[in-house]
């Protein structure tokens, strides 16, 4: 670990900074470089091991100004043209990306599949940097033929970066989900399911397109997956549903009304807890129906939970012996568990950082 360095692109942002703080606290000797578009920006925390660099994902080669090749890159800001992704691939630098909504995620994976990779690329763009899907996999074992239902309660008082509401631009676009009866197209904010979250708040949750639908069903035990969301204001949730069902949301689609759409739900506050509930229904070893309910709460909110999701993926790569690096290829959040980062180690990582996890 002594001579390794990690570049966090978007390192001055709400999530990127927290990723840096988490890794710095866990590995004080690790050199951390916070990448951003503003030249000469001072490091916002830490000691002499924290540096800054100019990295602009809109430039043709975002890593052009990086003098020393980092051991790992964590991307926490939109990379809409895959420029950072390809810049890292060309240089054979391991990359963790937590920024892609599903269509962009799928396009990027297709692009990577057509290339010869010489380093691992972790596509961790699921909910909270893949945290929800990761715990779905952990607690699905040893069940099989599992139906995984993921629910999130998003607080309108929580902190949020400007990229956090990118999904708002896709609220009228249908997306595929895998269900017990097979794959079908569904619409965002449809098919409500009433859910009670760990804080006791009960409300209807509605479908949302996230990469969890794509990655979870790759897990051997999981046959189908769905993701739904609710906001901690029932009035706000119902307003969004009404705007979409009435066709008004489609009328205000496009670049011209982007500010209006974002303004409806992007009014970040000083912070609030983020809650996730995971319901897993499957068969046990004897073929009997079994159900597990997992509750996850981060008192520090969704940006902190996202940062933890990125940091736990980074920790796996950083802890691997140099003589046994992770093989080149595409990885997803659910690929994290191994003999070094098992169920107990992953759960312990989150709990050490204040996340409350329970199951029944």
CATH topology of the largest domain: Dihydrodipicolinate Reductase, domain 2
Mean pLDDT: 91
Number of helices: 10
CATH level-1 class of the largest domain: Alpha Beta
CATH architecture of the largest domain: 2-Layer Sandwich
Going by helix content, strand content and strand pairing, the class is alpha/beta
H/E series, N to C? EHEEEHEHEHEEEEEHEHHHEEHEHE
Proportion of residues in extended strands: 25-35%
What is the CATH superfamily of the largest domain?
A: Dihydrodipicolinate Reductase, domain 2
Global outline: globular
Number of extended strands: 16
Features of the shown structure:
seven-stranded mixed β-sheet, Rossmann fold, 2 domains, alpha/beta, Dihydrodipicolinate Reductase, domain 2, 16 strands, 10 helices, about 25% strand, globular, about 350 residues, seven-stranded parallel β-sheet
């Amino acid at each position: 670990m002594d001579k390794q360095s990690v570049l966090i692109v978007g390192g001055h942002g709400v999530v990127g900074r927290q990723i840096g703080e988490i890794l710095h606290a866990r590995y004080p000797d690790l050199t951390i470089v916070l990448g951003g578009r503003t030249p000469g920006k001072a490091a916002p925390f830490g000691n002499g091991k924290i540096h800054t660099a100019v990295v602009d994902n809109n430039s043709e080669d975002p890593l052009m100004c990086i003098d020393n090749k980092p051991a790992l890159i964590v991307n926490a800001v939109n990379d809409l043209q895959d420029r950072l992704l390809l810049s890292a691939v060309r240089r054979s630098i391991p990359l963790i990306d937590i920024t892609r909504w599903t269509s962009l995620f799928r396009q990027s994976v297709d692009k990577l599949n057509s290339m010869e990779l010489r380093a691992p690329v972790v596509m961790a763009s699921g909910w909270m940097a893949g945290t929800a899907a990761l715990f779905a996999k952990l607690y699905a074992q040893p069940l099989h033929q599992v139906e995984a239902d993921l629910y999130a309660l998003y607080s309108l008082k929580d902190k949020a970066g400007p990229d956090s509401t990118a999904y708002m631009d896709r609220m009228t676009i249908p997306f595929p989900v895998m269900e017990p009866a097979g794959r079908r197209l569904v619409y965002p904010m449809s098919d409500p399911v009433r859910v009670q979250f760990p804080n006791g708040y009960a409300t209807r949750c509605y479908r949302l397109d996230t990469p969890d639908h794509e990655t979870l069903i790759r897990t051997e035990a999981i046959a189908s997956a769905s993701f739904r969301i609710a906001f901690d204001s029932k009035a706000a949730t119902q307003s969004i549903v009404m705007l979409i069902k009435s066709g008004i949301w489609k009328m205000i689609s496009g670049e011209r009304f982007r500010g209006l759409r974002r303004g409806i739900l992007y009014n970040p506050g000083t912070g609030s807890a983020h809650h996730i509930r995971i319901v897993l229904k499957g068969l046990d070893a004897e073929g009997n129906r079994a159900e597990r309910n997992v509750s996850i709460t981060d008192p520090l909110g969704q940006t902190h939970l996202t940062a933890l999701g990125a940091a736990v993926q980074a920790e796996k790569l950083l802890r691997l012996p140099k003589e046994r690096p992770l093989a080149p290829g595409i990885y997803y959040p659910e690929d994290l568990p191994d003999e070094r980062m098992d169920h107990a180690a992953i759960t312990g990582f989150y709990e050490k950082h204040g996340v409350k996890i329970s199951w029944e």
